[in-house]
């Protein structure tokens, strides 16, 4: 955003912007009494129960001279609404990604999507054992990446969402997903021990090298991480979006922008918002990032795909050539549910450990419930 603000400040003379960075943005609102009041807030996890207390309605910006609401992905735009009024606008988003060697493209039927059943069945066909009955090739194992497990349970209806200061979930769907993953591990890969032994022996290189090594077929990544890899290292890599029924759940940390409720510079803030959400501006921002080699640290717009549809369709493929024809339609995208401001900590310290232990086929000890883990989290980190 610092780079974008620099560009804005020299591109026009109606307003000047200054950036203040907050490590835990969603938890820093409202600002302390001795802090300067922000005008625009940009970051993740802004959509929560305090949204109306923190942000002013942006309905007036969607007019003939402002932003065309049809230019933004509809499910993501809906994410920022309360009772039909727009409080935040999506800026960028990322998608769960499965990668594999281009030479194996024919094994995946869809050009855009891949679901868990396809990964499981195609992966198991790739499996190979030595004479000693030890795996020397393994298509894919869920236990290799906790984020894969997390994304799969989301796809299967876990429905993690804000409830008070923590979150709620769909117990039945979560239990069903855990059963599915354990069955996958046992019936296709010989259980978690076999999966982890294989990973220890062979899976120590970067993911783009692993899928070209013929040791494994698939690897899980996130779009922002995958597209930061230099193109010369991924020229023999294909990818698909992890999905179910051609629905893709956008990563929880989607970036959004809002007008702070107590802004003192609303007119200047509107100038920036209108300027930012145009195709020409975002094209210039991408060009500038490439020219200054900023893409070695970030991907696309605000480290993700743009919320402006035409930018992904027309501009991104010029810089990320493998994206040509690969962007899903807006009907395929599913926005996150409202999440608590401390969701990243809850996910890391409660959800991921629970899922890892629950899906481990070797785990014979009593499993701590999510509620018990939340209580421990509260005591330790609150």
The succession of helices and strands, N to C, reads: HEHHEEEEEHEEHEEHHHEHEEEHHEHEHH
The dominant shape is globular
Beta-strand residue fraction: 5-15%
Termini separation comes to 30 Å
Q: Helical amount among residues, as a percent range?
A: 25-40%
Low-confidence stretches: none
Derived structural class: alpha+beta
Radius of gyration from CA coordinates: 22 Å
Q: Please, what is the average pLDDT?
A: 93
**Care to count the β-strands?**
16
User: Strand arrangement, largest sheet?
Assistant: 1-14-4-15
**Biggest pleated sheet:** 4 strands, antiparallel
Q: How many helices?
A: 14
Give a short summary of the structure:
The chain is globular. It is an alpha+beta fold and 382 residues long. Strands 1-14-4-15 form a four-stranded antiparallel sheet.
Task: Note the topology.
Blueprint: H1 2-11, E1 40-44, H2 51-54, H3 74-79, E2 81-82, E3 85-86, E4 88-93, E5 96-101, E6 113-114, H4 116-126, E7 128-129, E8 135-137, H5 146-155, E9 161-163, E10 166-168, H6 171-189, H7 192-202, H8 207-210, E11 219-222, H9 223-226, E12 237-242, E13 248-249, E14 255-259, H10 266-276, H11 279-291, E15 305-306, H12 309-319, E16 333-334, H13 343-358, H14 370-381
Parallel strand pairs: 6-12, 13-16
Antiparallel strand pairs: 1-14, 2-3, 4-14, 4-15, 5-11, 5-12, 7-8, 9-10
Helix pairs in contact: 5-6, 5-13, 11-12, 13-14
Describe, in plain words, how this protein is organized in 3D.
This protein is an alpha+beta fold and 382 residues long. The protein contains 14 helices and 16 strands. The protein has helices spanning 2-11, 51-54, 74-79, 116-126, 146-155, 171-189, 192-202, 207-210, 223-226, 266-276, 279-291, 309-319, 343-358, 370-381, and strands at residues 40-44, 81-82, 85-86, 88-93, 96-101, 113-114, 128-129, 135-137, 161-163, 166-168, 219-222, 237-242, 248-249, 255-259, 305-306, 333-334. Strands 1-14-4-15 form a four-stranded antiparallel sheet.
């Amino acid at each position: 955003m610092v780079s974008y603000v620099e560009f804005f400040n020299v591109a026009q003379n109606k307003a000047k912007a200054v950036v203040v960075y907050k490590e835990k943005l969603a938890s820093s609102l409202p600002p302390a009494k001795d802090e300067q009041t922000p005008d625009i807030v940009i970051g993740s996890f802004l959509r929560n129960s305090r949204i109306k207390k923190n942000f002013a309605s942006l309905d007036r910006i969607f007019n003939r001279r402002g932003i065309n609401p049809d230019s933004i992905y509809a499910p993501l735009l809906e994410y920022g609404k309360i009772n039909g009024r727009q409080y935040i606008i999506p800026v960028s988003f990322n998608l769960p990604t499965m990668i594999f060697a281009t030479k194996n493209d024919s094994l995946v039927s869809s050009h855009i999507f891949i679901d868990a059943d396809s990964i499981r069945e195609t992966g198991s066909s790739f499996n190979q054992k030595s004479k000693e009955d030890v795996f020397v090739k393994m298509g894919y194992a869920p236990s290799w990446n906790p984020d894969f497990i997390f994304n799969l349970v989301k796809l299967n209806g876990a429905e993690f969402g804000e409830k008070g200061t923590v979150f709620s979930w769909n117990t039945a769907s979560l239990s069903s997903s855990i059963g599915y993953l354990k069955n996958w591990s046992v019936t296709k890969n010989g259980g978690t021990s076999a999966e982890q032994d294989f990973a220890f022996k062979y899976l120590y290189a970067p993911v783009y090298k692993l899928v070209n090594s013929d040791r494994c077929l698939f690897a899980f990544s996130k779009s922002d991480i995958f597209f930061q890899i230099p193109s010369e290292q991924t020229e023999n890599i294909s990818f698909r979006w992890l999905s179910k029924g051609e629905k893709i759940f956008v990563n929880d940390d989607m970036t959004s922008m809002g007008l702070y409720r107590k802004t003192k510079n609303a007119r200047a803030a509107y100038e920036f918002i209108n300027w930012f959400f145009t195709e020409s501006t975002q094209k210039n921002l991408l060009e500038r990032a490439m020219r200054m080699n900023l893409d070695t640290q970030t991907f696309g717009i605000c480290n993700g795909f743009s919320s402006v549809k035409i930018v992904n369709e027309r501009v991104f493929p010029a810089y990320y050539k493998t994206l040509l024809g690969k962007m899903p339609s807006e009907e395929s995208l599913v926005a996150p549910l409202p999440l608590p401001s401390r969701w990243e900590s809850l996910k890391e310290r409660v959800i991921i450990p629970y899922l890892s232990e629950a899906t481990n086929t070797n785990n014979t000890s009593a499993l701590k419930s999510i509620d018990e883990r939340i209580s421990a989290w509260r005591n330790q980190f609150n």
